[in-house]
Write a structure and sequence with these properties.
heterodimer, A: 507 residues, alpha/beta, Rossmann fold, six-stranded mixed beta sheet, 20 strands, globular, B: 331 residues, mainly alpha, two-stranded antiparallel ribbon, 71% helix
């Protein structure tokens, strides 16, 4: 046992009923380092981390050594007590409480008579935010925050425990480049205090950007731990998937056809301002921008989730009125929403029901379901998309993120849309499934469908789009052709007119 | 997480799912056998069994409506009161002509009281659905208000007294038999089969599950949530109306106090039958068996000589156990 390591997890196995999630894993983390964990979904990273924070118990025989001492972590309170905190992938704020209340949830500062001191809570929170340069009002209600801001609050909360080990499970899946930069700065600062960060991510760039060590997991086993300096992208992907990935972005050349959707002066409150653009057959139109720029809102408005206040939507030369999603579906639009869990899957419903839901009118003339036909088309989709599920009766919540996403893609393909709008197509999805979904998008474009893709991942935007609409503050700040699209150009447009509204720490 | 791997190991035969699905039938059988032994065979006699099922008809029909509502993450507390409204409205139109009748010396064909009773229940249910979907009032609150208001209306309409001296044709709906099968059982069976078909073979049925599974996602999928919600609560009220007519027919009068507390029996039946309070899960046949279990319990405890008070305690315990089991199986 040496002091070389802050944390050693030895012989950790974890068996769930019917499945071995971890098999004899040995993880060693050095103090003051960023240690990235990589691997496809289901590889065992999250399970290992949940054991570390005390959420799960490892199978007998495992040893955890923290700072040279053997420790027991029977529950999350014990984990926090030992200085281990975690930012979960799925955020869990209490929406009706204020930011400060969320940060100090369960450890509220107590004043006289055992009452909670709101004042002290707010001032401590403000101190914390100042130290980490977070620009959020501690008194704001959590539900009024954007996803990105919520994420920053969660990060601040984890840091506020003064932990020795901070686990971050895909902390950047919901935040923009600028906030990623901010987070990385915070991480470097944390490192300098001797804390170690265990960083779970699917994003390659990040790994090389900030990590000192990388551990790769595959199928419940630890494949290898290497210093980041000895790795490159290809080598890492090979370790992760155990096979060569041919191409990250299987963008195919497609003949661009006539205009199928024209949006003119679309307006909705302060979130969508005077948005105009054209979409052509066979085209993948990327939507880039920072969090809160209004990209998701444009899609929601087009789809009638929230109706537009003014503006014209022309589909196939005909002006259409869209006041509810049904109108949009009838007009040939489809919307794959950003938040799979919140607005996508119906968890306890079967894969079959989830697939057919949006296309029901087509398969239930007179209101009666055509069960045999539904079975047939769903089986076809299952094959076509190489869906991994034991049966169509399986509850969709038991599928992996990538497979859930495929079911949702099927849901919309079955409505036979001409225009497919996809919001964050590969968020929280592992590398293998990611490129499958990209390939599928390319294939759809090839059949003449028009695709709008909102994405916060720059490589995805650059890799998949024929043109990129860049948004800033609810407005279109520029439309860039594929040939001219560079990271710099898009970031420039996304951060707004130079020197006018750009915040001081803009990337 | 390793959900894919977990899912793949379940490909062959899912013993857990099988047990979950049919455990309830086993419980019913054990229940009936246990009660038979305890009552020295009295429980298992044909007459008693028919009694059990006849008595369960009203609870069962209401529990079916409740199943629709609970699947969509709603609740309907007003069913007992709507049952009473339907009962007094129907019976007031089914009295034998006399000076003291609600409508003195008037006689209506049998279809009138039936339609009026059903309409009364449906209108109450429609109002619930409207309040919930248009004014966005929580189902618990909207139907709590309706529970009180409708009971009040039933009492006002009947002057607080049972409406009696009914046309034998009307009483037939609660007391009669066709080829030896009590009419309430026939109506219950028809309602159950129809509800099963609606839930499993129609577009509307899918909408019900979708709304309970994830209302936001259902909306984005083009489902008209408002319309579906109104239909569901109207249906629930309509079924309360059917139960009201049967109940009034059984006792031969329209008592404005009918159906008091029946919402709890109906909720219990649905929950024992596997309808989840987390939405999106529930079956009609599960609810039917749940209703049978409740009624067996009611009758069985009476045969065992236990009083009402004990029954209430046992029922309370059962609903809590059912929910605990539901929590565990969905984990």
């Amino acid at each position: 046992m040496s002091d070389e390591f802050l944390l050693q997890m030895q012989d950790v196995s974890k068996t769930f009923p019917g499945v071995r999630a971890l098999a004899g894993v040995n993880l060693e983390v050095r103090p003051g380092t960023v240690h990235a964990l990589m691997g496809e979904n289901g590889a065992g990273k999250s399970t290992l981390m949940k054991i570390l924070i005390g959420m799960y118990q490892a199978d007998p025989g495992a040893t955890i050594i923290l700072g040279g001492e053997k420790v027991d972590i029977p529950d999350t309170a014990a984990g926090l007590g030992l200085g281990i905190s975690m930012i979960h992938q799925e955020l869990s704020p209490v929406p009706e409480m204020t930011v400060a209340e969320n940060i100090f949830l369960g450890r509220e500062p107590v004043a006289r008579f055992g009452l909670v001191s709101r004042k002290q809570m707010v001032s401590s929170c403000r101190e914390l935010f100042q130290r980490w340069e977070i620009d959020i009002d501690p008194r704001a209600r959590m539900r009024t925050l954007s996803i990105a801001q919520t994420q920053m609050v969660e990060i601040a909360k984890a840091i506020s425990f003064d932990s020795r080990i901070i686990i971050m499970d895909e902390p950047t899946s919901a935040i923009t480049e600028r906030e990623v930069e901010h987070l990385h700065r915070m991480i470097r600062q944390l490192k300098s205090t001797g804390a170690s960060i265990i960083y779970i991510t699917h994003k390659m760039d990040e790994v090389f950007n900030i990590s000192d060590y990388v551990t790769v997991f595959r199928d419940g086993q630890l494949v290898k731990t290497l210093p980041a300096s000895e790795l490159d992208r290809d080598k890492l992907i090979t370790l992760m998937v155990g096979r060569e990935l041919t191409e990250m972005f299987p963008k195919e050349f497609v003949e661009i056809g006539e205009v199928v959707l024209s949006v003119r002066n679309l307006h909705r409150g302060s979130v969508v301002k005077d948005v105009s653009f054209d979409l052509r057959r066979g085209e993948i139109l990327g939507f880039a921008g920072l969090m809160g720029a209004g990209r998701t809102e444009v899609l929601e408005t087009l789809f009638g989730v929230v109706a537009a206040e003014s503006g014209e939507i022309v589909v196939d030369g005909k002006s259409v009125r869209i006041r509810q999603p049904k109108d949009a579906i009838d007009a040939g639009l489809a919307l794959l929403t950003e938040d799979r869990k919140l607005t996508g899957i119906m968890g306890v419903l079967s894969v079959r029901d989830n697939m057919i839901m949006a296309a029901l009118p087509r398969y239930s003339p007179g209101g009666m379901l055509q069960k045999a036909l539904i079975e047939e088309v769903c089986q076809d989709q299952r094959k076509a998309l190489a869906l991994k599920t034991p049966s169509l009766n399986q509850h969709i919540q038991n599928l992996s993120g990538g497979n859930q996403q495929k079911v949702l893609i099927s849901r919309w393909l079955l409505t036979l849309p001409e225009i497919l709008m996809i919001d964050e197509p590969t968020r929280g999805i592992d590398v293998g499934a990611k490129s499958e979904i990209h390939r599928l998008m390319s294939a759809l474009a090839k059949t003449g469908k028009a695709i709008i893709m909102v994405s916060s991942e720059m490589p995805e935007v650059l890799g998949m789009s024929d043109r990129v609409v860049v948004m800033h503050d609810g407005k279109v700040s520029g439309i860039v052709d594929r040939a001219d699209a560079t990271q710099e150009r898009i970031m420039q447009l996304a951060t707004g007119p130079a020197g006018v509204t750009g915040p001081a720490d803009a990337a | 997480m390793s959900t894919t791997a977990a899912a793949e190991t379940r490909t062959k035969f899912d013993r857990g799912a099988f047990v979950r699905q049919y455990a309830i039938v086993g419980i019913l059988v054990l229940f009936v056998l246990g009660l038979s032994l305890a009552t020295g065979g009295k429980f298992l006699q044909a007459q008693n069994l028919l009694n059990v099922v006849t008595q369960v008809a009203a609870i069962g029909i209401i529990a079916i409506g409740m199943t629709f509502v609970i699947i969509t993450l709603g609740i309907d507390l007003s069913v007992g009161s709507l049952l009473a409204v339907a009962a007094v409205v129907a019976t007031s139109l089914a009295q034998i002509p006399s000076d003291t009748a609600k409508f003195p010396n008037m006689s209506f064909s049998l279809i009138i009281p039936i339609v009026a009773g059903l309409a009364a229940g449906a209108i109450g249910g429609f109002t619930n659905g409207f309040l919930i979907s248009v004014f966005k009032i929580a189902p618990f609150i909207a139907t709590l208000g309706m529970m009180s208001a409708a009971r009040g209306l039933a009492l006002i309409y009947s002057d607080g007294r049972p409406i009696s001296r009914l046309d034998p044709g009307f009483n037939f709906l609660g007391q009669g038999s066709i080829i030896g099968i009590p009419v309430p059982i026939i109506i219950f069976a028809v309602v159950a089969v129809a509800a099963h078909v609606v839930l499993n073979y129609t577009r509307f049925g899918r909408h019900v599950y979708a709304i309970g599974g994830n209302e936001q996602a259902a909306r984005v999928s083009g489902i008209n949530i408002k319309r579906a919600t109104i239909i569901i609560y109207t249906l629930c009220g309509l079924l309360a109306g059917i139960a009201g007519i049967i109940s009034a027919g059984r006792i031969g009068s329209g008592n404005p106090q009918l159906g008091t507390g029946i919402e709890l029996d109906a909720i219990t039946a649905a929950v024992i039958g596997g309808t989840s309070f987390k939405g999106g899960i529930g079956t009609i046949w599960g609810t039917v068996i749940g209703a049978l279990i409740i009624q067996s319990l009611n009758t069985g405890l009476v045969l065992l000589g236990m009083n009402d008070f004990v029954q209430m305690v046992v029922k309370g315990a059962i609903i809590i156990i059912a929910v605990i089991l539901d929590e565990r199986k969905n984990r």
